[in-house]
Amino acid sequence: MRRRNLLRATALGTGASLLATASRAAAAPALLTDRPLLTYGAQSGEVTADSGIVWTRADRPARMWAEVSTRPDFKHARRLRGPALTEATDFTGKIRVDGLCPGRTVHYRVWADDGRAGLPVEGTFRTPRTGGQDVRFVWSADLAGQGWGINRDFGGFKIFDDMGARDPDFFLCSGDFYYADNVIEESVTLADGRVWRNVVTPEKSKVAETLDEFRGQYKYNLLDEKLRAFLRKVPVVSQWDDHEVINNWYPGKVLDDARYTEKNVDVLAAHAWKALAEYTPSLLASDGEGRIYRKVSYGPLLDVFTIDMRSFRNRNDANNDPATPSGLLGRAQLDWLKRALSESTATWKVLSAGMPLGGIVSDGKPNQDGVPQGDAGMPLGRELEIAELLSHVHREGIANLVVATADVHYTSAQHYDPARAAYKEFTPFWEFIAGPMNAGSYGPVKFDKTFGPEVRFHKPPAVAGTGPLDGGQFFGEMSIDAESRALTVRLHEIGGTELYSVEIPAA
């Protein structure tokens, strides 16, 4: 990682001068327009036992600064000098904070300084213990899709209040954090005459094609107060799916969509990657360094393996080749995943996948966007990669693998078992689907029987495309008990209602 992209911070002193500056500014509000403002709050992410990343964005060129402390009053705080916030990264920046202690609540505040210090924004995150501790995280996907944007009469993105109420250690964003290919209009009139009223911005008035328009997708969502409040207190693990670029995209795709002047999807994907690197508290760099597939460890009980099911996939076709050369993951990513799973010593291994492993997702007949194609026999096409992965897990004796996924806009729990499958060489496992967070609700998808899935629970909408006014917004929660080491999975609807739960004992 290059210094200009992600500055590894060092301690420079205490926070006394910042407090004095903030107090003077608060006493003289008229002067605030002369000071840098943080336009979209602060976020944290990629938290480990001894480090984390903090993020912010200013309204002008400035220097990013942060202070961190284990005390909410910031006594004995460390001051950290961050990167220059410049037009090159749309005035965003992040600081990697090292030297933290395991199992502590870390209080941080960030501000921008252009010779005059702006007011700080505060946040918190928790570092995992190196010994046993209960672990809880939430996951979901699909935000501001199908025209359902920020409706302040509705309460904005209310699901973030519900997820925050679970007091998670982190939030796993499973992709489609925005919809670059969906326009947000001022209002949506439902069939029964009810009206959904959206906040609108210029960048969301058309599909995203330029870098600034992709940046504008993040800016739009971050206008929501509930989302900003959630991100200040819950660290994020980010990945992407298709709508960060365009629906069902793959490398090399050329569009025939009349809404687009830029037809080359690779150009759109490059813009989306840079915006993702700039607007998330991740290890990704805006010049293309870093990768979405990685392992995130949260103590001895949990390793999360996020995978990238978009960047390395083959084109969407009938997906029935008995020996397809690439699939969804690509050889380098698949080999990394097998190796990382073998090396993991965590009790539970959660595979964070952008799409269900057995759900049939069409890209217009006969083409398929997902893993299977509907042939219930032996693996074909992209299923060959999954078969190789599952067989590796089985042969290596890797226990306690669970899949957390999204993409299909409803919630579901399914159990895969070789006793029900055409392909037999794998260990039974669970898969759980969550989402959307604030988008249209669809489903259910049909499941291919190659790996023997059995749906134990699902909640699709009565009418496809149902919006947040009628519910149909979901998130998942996984919690591990440190004493029993059992994993409990809960599926929740907006409002916090628990729809389904299952306790899975550790092997």
From TrEMBL:
Per UniProt, the keywords (alphabetical) are: Hydrolase, Signal
Q: Which PROSITE patterns has this protein been placed in?
A: TAT
- The signal sequence is 1-27
For this protein, the record's InterPro entries field holds: Metallo-depent_PP-like (IPR029052), PhoD-like_MPP (IPR018946), PhoD-like_sf (IPR038607), PhoD_N (IPR032093), Phospholipid_Metab_Enz (IPR052900), TAT_signal (IPR006311)
**Enzyme superclass (EC):** hydrolase
Q: Which GO terms describe its molecular function?
A: alkaline phosphatase activity
Where in the numbering of this chain does the PhoD-like phosphatase metallophosphatase domain appear?
Answer: 143-490
Where is the Phospholipase D N-terminal domain positioned along the sequence?
A: 41-127
What Enzyme Commission number does this protein have? 3.1.3.1
Q: Which PANTHER family match?
A: PHOD-LIKE PHOSPHATASE METALLOPHOSPHATASE DOMAIN-CONTAINING PROTEIN, PHOSPHATASE, PUTATIVE (AFU_ORTHOLOGUE AFUA_6G08710)-RELATED
Q: What is this protein called?
A: Alkaline phosphatase D
